[in-house]
Write a structure and sequence with these properties.
The structure holds three protein chains of three kinds. By secondary structure, chain A is of the alpha/beta class. Chain A contains 14 helices and 24 strands. The mean pLDDT of chain A is 94. The longest helix of chain C is centred in the C-terminal third of the chain and has 18 residues. Classes of the chains: A alpha/beta, B mainly beta, C alpha+beta. Chain A: This is FAD/NAD(P)-binding oxidoreductase.
């Protein structure tokens, strides 16, 4: 029997899953949206002459891990059906519908591993649609992948470990970092030392970046309350409340992000069920300890797409999901997975989320005129007006207001939209539900969708 | 033309290439995404459909869909995931 | 709980019936399994057309159209209703005969249509694809936003005094001694001398409880929408054969559909099928080639039931006095819904209506025994 296994995503989880399958004699299909493997964290430079920075410059402390992952891929590539530059935009029970090079293609599968990663989690503030405001992860991509800074003078605003890392990388590249501002108290470094101790080395790196930023006399301020981004046609400054006092920072760019959210649209189309994860304050596909999707045979989820645990955990989770798949096929495992380590990562992530939480509390005070949905230009006030009309569920609000109906399908506004609705109704955010995913999960040109259909 | 929103801080020793931006010959570096190629010379990418306010993309990872521009033949291009090429003709308004 | 009228089903048909009954000063309870206006009524294509309907539907369609003209005064919003015209297209010679046949028949009812040959189409709608050979145009048709209209009917019904009970799945309805007893899954019971079956895709089950066996075929129309583009394609488009329908809203998005998605066994959930999307996209790009570069950003489906002859069932039961049916509206309910409610309210309360619906009775299926 020749089981067709497809893996979606070429980051740490997808590569390690593929590696373990290959080690057991399988030849999976690996589909990756990017032109080169590595995912976001271990993204490689474009394959063009003249790019010079080495692993140390690009990945810092993680250079060794990046190198290992890239090498692992090179080893197994001959055994893979590797499809770079391929976006999976819809999933049927037995095949993936993909877009690559402007062409639609259907790829049959028997078993499916989704390793779709994560993206920035956003809480809007007035002015956040101005040119010059970018997602924190986007600011990092500009620098790592393209050697560019998002502006000449940049404020980093948000929470989560990436905030300090990105600011550090910018400052080190010679960019003027005007300030690093976080909503987390004590810069998010204080709380739950026990949980942090679960991954002491990683926790120490965060402290290192903060210490470096402070040593360069960059203001690093905790417990801020974002007020607005100023500017007419582009960013001219940022206002936040610090200890109740308004403070202005001059800048021409803002990197904005409050931790990460799972990219789980494909999991939904593939038939995964969703549960609300209180620790991460987001809806996640439901999986067992081995990455099997609950209620959907043949579907496995790995990496940050199935709940945020970071890149190191993603590598483990990729191997674990592949192990589950192999066992389900009746193939004896040649190696043993290290679940103890994974549990430590989970504890660490819970502690991290407590120390650097998503600022749900800002939703209630977001001014009515603030844009929530940047695709359709829907404001917080429109969502509240829908609540006033008696709508209590986010998909009903979507139907009434167009929130989340645009090109991105609520990827950016879905979480904040639910928070604004919940705050208005005075209920917990899980009780307003979550925006449902609809195909195509990324825009697809009509001519490509049509393909050679009759 | 004004100042670009983005600033190059590394990887500047790449081959220079020329592309057409709204009909004007513009310089980029080989390996630039369309988004980078535009934002290193301009302050924004496109106008939002419903407000006529300028936008410059947001996520740079193909998720937010706020950086769609077009090629001269009318095809849509997501600026952050498309690499610029010699002679490419980009229009930022439909 | 007792009332003058019970309506089963909170779609646009049920809600407009409840609204009109309440406006006539009678008490009415509407029972909806889920939330009002979120099934087929809230997710359909959004065409508001008289054009192309079976002739038996036209009087009802005209009645509805008159209500559409002043919708805001009835439900507090115009729901983005715009009179953009409807263009029905022939793609082959055999279509032409059907186009003209309908034009003749409709004119007998007073529906004014214009015949446009290829030259006239080129002049008026130069963006149409080369395989279109002719069309008929109905200037008084248009389009609206179902996501807004269906819930607005529910809200208006409530404001007019109707009792809307959501989350109330009807599991049994019986008639004895002139009164209907209706039971809901959670055990609540409701009682009224008049009952309206507006249960959409699930209405055949209700009709069956009263000995009227109708075969209702579940339909899962699949619709998709593009990113916004400059507003250019005004009329709603349809084709002979019905395999594609198309409109652009002034905001810029192009909405089109055709073909069937899939539904689960009890029709409570549905989802699009990729091959259907591909086929609809291919045909849409043939009919309006300029859209070929536009991105599709979302696809959706809804479930309704269709009758054997494709026209809805509206009117009194053949077995049970006081029972009225209004279902089988797939492809019809959105435009007709506002009119159905008005006519049913007249039949329920006044015992008669000036709107001729005699060709829409359930008798044509349950037949002569």
């Amino acid at each position: 029997m020749n089981t067709r296994v497809a893996i979606v995503g070429g980051g740490p989880a997808g590569i390690r899953a593929a590696e373990r399958l290959v080690e057991h004699g399988l030849s999976p299909i690996l589909l990756d949206e990017a032109p080169r493997i590595g995912g976001r964290i271990y993204q490689q430079l474009p394959e063009v002459r003249g790019f010079r920075r080495d692993g140390k410059a690009l990945y810092g402390f993680e250079a060794g891990k990046a190198e290992d992952l890239h090498a692992a891929f090179a080893r197994i590539q001959p055994q893979l059906d590797y499809r770079p530059g391929t976006t999976v935009f819809d999933i049927a029970s037995d095949r993936l519908i993909t877009l690559g090079d402007g062409r639609r293609e259907e790829i049959a599968y028997d078993r499916l591993i989704l390793a779709t990663g994560a993206m920035d989690r956003i809480m809007p503030l007035p002015g956040w649609t101005l040119p010059g405001v970018f997602a924190l992860g986007g600011a990092q991509i500009a620098l790592k992948h393209q050697g560019c800074a998002i502006g000449h003078s940049v404020v980093f605003l948000g929470s989560g470990p990436l905030l300090y890392l990105a600011a550090y990388q910018y400052a080190k590249a010679g960019v003027n970092v005007a300030a690093v501002l976080t909503t987390a108290p004590w810069l998010g470094l204080g709380a739950n030392l026990l949980g942090m101790a679960a991954q002491a080395k990683t926790a120490a790196k965060g402290a290192y970046y903060v210490a470096k930023l402070l040593s360069w006399r960059i203001p690093v301020i905790g417990s801020v309350r974002p007020a607005r981004i100023m500017g007419r046609d582009s960013v001219e400054g940022l206002e936040v409340l610090v200890d109740g006092r308004l403070r202005q920072f001059d800048c021409d760019a803002v990197a904005l992000g409050y931790g990460l959210k799972s990219e789980s649209q494909l999991a939904e189309l593939a038939g995964a069920q969703f549960v609300f994860d209180r620790a991460q304050n987001q809806w996640l596909p439901e999986i067992d300890d081995h990455g099997r999707a609950v209620g959907r045979d043949g579907l496995y989820l790995a990496g940050d797409g199935a709940g945020i645990q970071g890149a190191d955990a993603a590598e483990l989770r990729g191997r674990i999901a592949a192990g589950a798949l192999l066992q389900d096929l009746g193939i004896a495992l040649k190696d043993a997975g290290d679940f103890g380590t994974l549990k430590r990562w989970h504890r660490f992530r819970v502690a991290l989320e407590q120390a650097m939480p998503f600022p749900s509390h800002l939703a209630a005070d977001l001014p009515d005129a603030s844009i929530l949905c940047r695709c359709e230009n829907i404001t917080a006030g429109e969502v509240r007006a829908a609540a006033d009309q008696g709508l209590r569920e986010i998909n009903r609000v979507k139907a009434a207001t167009r929130l989340g109906m645009g090109r991105c399908q609520g990827r950016i506004c879905g979480i904040a939209g639910a928070e604004v609705l919940a705050a208005k109704l005075g209920v917990s955010v899980d009780s307003v539900g979550r925006l449902r995913a609809q195909p195509p999960v990324k825009p697809v040109p009509i001519e490509a969708l049509a393909g050679d259909a009759p | 033309m004004g100042r670009g929103q983005f600033r190059r801080v590394a990887e500047r020793e790449r081959r220079r290439i020329a592309f057409l931006l709204d009909g004007v010959e513009t310089e980029a570096l080989e390996g630039d995404t369309v988004l980078i190629a535009i934002l290193t010379t301009r302050a924004h990418l496109r106008m939002a459909e419903f407000t006529e306010a300028p936008r410059a993309g947001f996520c740079l990872m193909g998720a937010c869909q706020d950086c769609w521009v077009a090629s001269a033949d009318g095809r849509s291009l997501r600026a952050c995931t498309t690499y610029v090429a010699e002679g490419m003709a980009i229009v930022t308004r439909r | 709980m007792k009332a003058d009228v019970i309506v089963i089903g909170g779609g646009i048909v049920g809600c407009s019936t409840a609204l009109h009954v309440a406006r006539k000063g009678r008490s009415v309870i509407l029972l909806e399994r889920d939330q009002a206006g979120i099934r087929a009524s809230g997710v359909n294509f959004g065409g508001v057309r008289q054009h192309g309907r079976a002739l038996a539907e036209l009087p009802l369609s005209f009645r509805a159209r008159a209500i559409w003209a002043d919708l805001a005064s009835l439900i507090g919003t115009d729901g983005e209703f715009a009179v953009t015209g409807h263009l029905r297209l022939a793609r082959q010679e055999s279509d032409l005969r059907l186009l003209l046949l309908h034009m003749q028949g409709a004119s007998l009812y007073g529906l004014k249509l214009e015949f446009l040959d290829r030259a006239a189409l080129d002049h008026r709608f130069p963006w149409l694809g080369p395989h279109i050979i002719a069309g008929t145009y109905c200037p008084s048709d248009g389009q609206a936003n179902p996501r807004l209209i269906a819930p607005a009917f529910a809200t208006a019904a409530r404001k007019a005094g109707a009792t809307l009970v959501e989350g109330a799945e009807v599991v049994e309805a019986t008639h004895d001694g002139g009164v209907f007893q209706v039971a809901v899954r959670d055990g609540r019971r409701f009682e009224a001398p008049l009952l309206v079956n507006a249960a959409g895709a699930w209405a055949a089950t209700v009709a069956g409880w009263f000995g009227e066996m109708v075969n209702l075929v579940p339909e899962v129309p699949q619709v998709m929408v593009t990113e916004p583009a400059p507003y250019r394609f005004q009329p709603v488009l349809g084709v002979i054969g019905g395999d594609l329908y198309f409109r652009q809203i002034p905001r810029g998005n192009v909405i089109f559909g055709g073909g069937q998605g899939r539904a689960n066994a009890d029709h409570t959930r549905s989802a699009p099928l990729p091959e259907i999307s591909a086929r609809a996209a291919a045909e849409a790009a043939r009919i309006v080639p300029e859209i070929r570069h536009l991105n599709i950003i979302r696809t959706w489906t809804g479930v309704d039931g269709d009758t054997a002859d494709g026209s809805p069932i509206v009117g009194p039961s053949t077995t049970t006095p006081g029972l009225f049916h209004a279902f089988g509206f797939c492809g019809h309910g959105f435009q007709l819904g506002p009119g159905v409610g008005a006519v049913l309210a007249e039949l329920l309360i006044d015992g008669r209506s000036d709107t001729d619906i005699h060709g829409l009775g359930i008798a044509r299926f349950v037949g002569r025994r």
